Amino acid sequence: MSPSIPTLKLNDGNSIPILGYGLGTANFKRGPAKDKFDESIAQATVTAIRAGYHHLDGAEGYGNETELGAAIARSGVPRDQLFVTTKTSCRKGETIELAFSRSLEKLGLDYVDLYLIHSPFFGEGGKAATKEELQAKWREVEALKDSGRAKSIGVSNYLREHLEAVLEIAKHKPAVNQIEYHPYLQHEGELVEYHRGKGIALEAYSPLTALTKAKGGPVDEVYERLAGKYGVEVGDVALRWVLDQGIVALTTSGSEERLKGWLERLWGFELTEEEVEEISERGKGKHFRGFWNGKFEEGDRR
């Protein structure tokens, strides 16, 4: 693992770097481009790895597992120093084993460090899966952990009811739930505390949303003030707000300077409990969901 990035111990005894490079936003491939190798994605990922980002977050749904695999091969970083995640979309009529084997082939790897069910929305017509469907898929994922080809297993975009269905039958509890998380989507209803009580780690994707997609909101002033206090950038404050809650942060950038800057500055300061709470309280004044809007009910703040 990257020596400059601290790690978090998971409930299965494995450790995950608390800052990761995600391939699901700027590097997402759509339409006909999915079938063509994108050299720019591979090179951007090599740049991130060499900058010190050894936690790499991918998914079959992003359409770029081949580019991620190429970047891993080109980086020169030994496999045991990388933490590689990919996810299954749970395509209808397809087993988890088939999806996982295809992902391994594209990645050029014989195991992944973390394998996730990408969302609970693999039921009939793209709706949330039933309790029985959630449980059946989880048993399939558990078989991958038992085989040793997925060191840790988990889920993504699951709410409490989805997790409770899985936990009823789980031989291996989900190690991680990866969710959209930022001041404007704090998942009201004590979802974060629920995870802590169950020993399931949270990963936050899109943690910079208040600065990018939803700029012009109540946390802007707090970010600016705290950035001045600590002599850092507003993006550093946004990431620290996540990290200081014990939540893993996933981010991305096409700028090598920005990627290196985060690694240089993030470990030099921490927000106080009062500052974390101030951002949280200000954030409740605005609601914004950047992903899966067609799946969650409008205005759903969970």
UniProtKB/TrEMBL annotation:
Span of domain NADP-dependent oxidoreductase: 22-281
GO molecular function per UniProt: oxidoreductase activity, acting on NAD(P)H as acceptor; oxidoreductase activity, acting on the CH-OH group of donors, NAD or NADP as acceptor
Organism superkingdom: Eukaryota
InterPro entries: AKR (IPR020471), AKR3C2/3 (IPR044494), Aldo/ket_reductase_CS (IPR018170), NAD(P)_OxRdtase_dom_sf (IPR036812), NADP_OxRdtase_dom (IPR023210)
Catalytic residue positions: Y62
Entries under Pfam families matching the protein: Aldo_ket_red (PF00248)
Transmembrane domains' residue ranges: none
CDD domains xref list: AKR_AKR3C2-3 (cd19120)
Site (Lowers pKa of active site Tyr) location in chain: K87
Keyword terms: NADP, Oxidoreductase
UniProt keyword Hydrolase, yes or no: no
Entries under PROSITE patterns matching the protein: ALDOKETO_REDUCTASE_2
Binding positions (substrate): H118
Record SUPFAM superfamilies: NAD(P)-linked oxidoreductase
The family this protein is said to belong to: Belongs to the aldo/keto reductase family.
Name this polypeptide is given: Alpha-keto ester reductase
Species the sequence originates in: Podospora fimiseda
